[in-house]
Amino acid sequence: MEFLIDAFKNAFFLIVSLDKELLEIITLSLKVSLTALFFASLFGIPFGAFLGLKNFLGKTVILILLNTGMGLPPVVVGLFLYMLFSRSGPLGFLQLLYTPTAMIIAQFILAFPIVTALTQSAIVKVDPIIKLTARTLGATPFQVALTVIKEARYGIVAGVIAGLGRVMAEVGAILIVGGNIAGYTRVITTTIALETDKGNFELALALGIILLIISFIINISFYIIQKRGIPPNIAWL
């Protein structure tokens, strides 16, 4: 029991003293995850909106693939990217293996299906009366699409937050492609795994507490957004 108390005391000391190594790891984690989420949202939201607004041949297959991708095992993504970026791989000349860029790509692959699928789901749940009213008021197809997207904005934001939760807690893929190099590719989750194996529980606990706080903030934000609702409003047309 005394061992646990001492470990927690030292962990809290690292946090309140703003330990340099701790801050570097947290900063890199946020940089990698937020960058990956930015690109996942940049491509995922428009694609999800397109899937939600249009019907075309092959759409069902795409949705099945996206739903499958939402549960894609991180280690499989890491293995695929490792083979792709290794020296003998087809993209080995890019020298991306064991770099933050490779970690961003891995997290992008994990977040993209979530953002896209949840955006599509939010779009299709918009009341059809919104489209009909907009068309009645003389809106163009583009304006109708913008109206629907506006009505689905809380669901879309919830999808982005869900994507952030996915990448912040991820360890398998980034450990494989990042290598957990001190001062270069060490992030929160990989450091927790490494330091626990080494018996350095103080740093692992400190990072674990930070990760729990981030996860709590993400989940609270997700809950609040899910509970919010907006009345139909197309007066801007």
Automatic annotation (TrEMBL):
ABC transmembrane type-1 domain location: 26-222
Keywords annotated in UniProt: Membrane, Transmembrane, Transmembrane helix, Transport
Transmembrane segments: 32-53, 60-85, 97-118, 156-183, 203-225
Bilayer disposition of the protein: Multi-pass membrane protein
GO cellular component, one term: plasma membrane
Pfam families the UniProt entry points to: BPD_transp_1 (PF00528)
One GO process term, biological-process aspect: transmembrane transport
Subcellular compartments: Cell membrane
Main location: membrane
Family label: Belongs to the binding-protein-dependent transport system permease family.
Name of the protein described by the UniProt record: Tungstate transporter permease
Organism of this sequence: Thermodesulfobacterium geofontis
Taxonomy of the source species: Bacteria, Pseudomonadati, Thermodesulfobacteriota, Thermodesulfobacteria, Thermodesulfobacteriales
